Amino acid sequence: MATVLVLNSGSSSLKYQLVDPASGRSVAGGIVERIGEPTGSATHQSGESETGETVRDARVPDHGAALRLVLDLFDEAGPSLADAGITAVGHRVVHGGAVFTEPTLVDDDVVAAVRDLIPLAPLHNPAAVEGIEVARELLAHLPHVAVFDTAFFAPLPAAAATYALDREVTAEHGIRRYGFHGTSHEFVSSAVTAHPAVVANLTAEGRRPESLRQVVLHLGNGASASAVLGGRPVDTSMGFTPLEGLVMGTRPGDLDPGIVFHLIRAGLSPSDVDTLLNKRSGLLGMAGANDMREVRKLADTGDADARLALEVYLHRLRKYVGAYAAVLGGIDVLTFTAGVGENDHRIRSGVVRDLKFLGLTIDPAANEARSDEARVVSVREQAAPGSTAAALPLVMVVPTNEELAIARQAMELAEG
Ligand code: AMP
Prior knowledge:
nucleotide-binding, 14 strands, ATPase_NBD, Aliphatic_acid_kinase_CS, alpha/beta, cytoplasm
């Protein structure tokens, strides 16, 4: 077995998974939380320990201490990293700017360049730099690979990537639409292209995979949409920062920038507005809860704010699917992924219900069935005489797996 340790460093947390890229299996994983706070904790999951889960409460002053704690947990609860065949470390980095358009083997210059990108992602890149630095120190014998959340969207067409601002200002400040969640959109759109139902339909229609028009909705706590033509992104809803686009757990998505000036003139500081838009808006702002399950519960008991929040959430989704169908010149597959997209069948039916004019349908039984597999949830019709495949366009649910995607990319570079 050859495995990759995937690290996702947040400002106060360190998530990790030891992944076998060949089988796709997660061998062990966990999270260190409340780094830098008076009390932290680590939860480690591994098939080797009796209970499956080991929990440690300890003060974790910084990311170095967090990674040391993780390595201790591997030693104590297993599996031993050496026995598990650790071959590389993969780091999730949110912002690659215009510099990093592919996974990159980390050296000192790469660390310096990721640090230079901090002004573009002040909430995310500092932790990534810290995570990379401590991991290179503690796991110095392994190759380290940085995988960027923006990379998949680097080839966005200029028409989609450019903000209609003064060109000197955009050039001076690196302002363009970068897009985020790229690792997930790439993983899911490739899984769709390879799915037997999609392959069967393309073959039945005599079409090449390059012509496949997909819309992917990544609906988690953060949420984003992408339009993908033949595996290449042609548009995405997150822009210069992850604030733009869909309604999210705590972010509003699309917003008139005039609101920002209005609030600042009314006395809020820029950092107040930053907090409002990143942490206090979206479902949380409208309904008082950022978790879709809670918003649903509130709406089901008749809470008017939660009902409105769901309507705003769905309205935005329909708008984006319609817009992306226009950008793509039609739609062959609409795919739902991430926490809400994979689990909430009412969100899926709520989006598709009003999109019949695009040929999109939903099969209630398939949509409501629970599964961890990539699957078709639209009505199955005969695509061609003798074929049992559902006809295009399809609606699908495809579980995302960013850790596996990072592990595969890291392994490829490490072996390269
Ligand atoms: P993610 O960011 O992909 O981990 O998604 C996390 C979000 O998924 C949570 O905040 C919930 O809103 C949502 N979620 C998870 N499970 C469910 C479920 N069974 N039904 C509805 N939403 C869910």
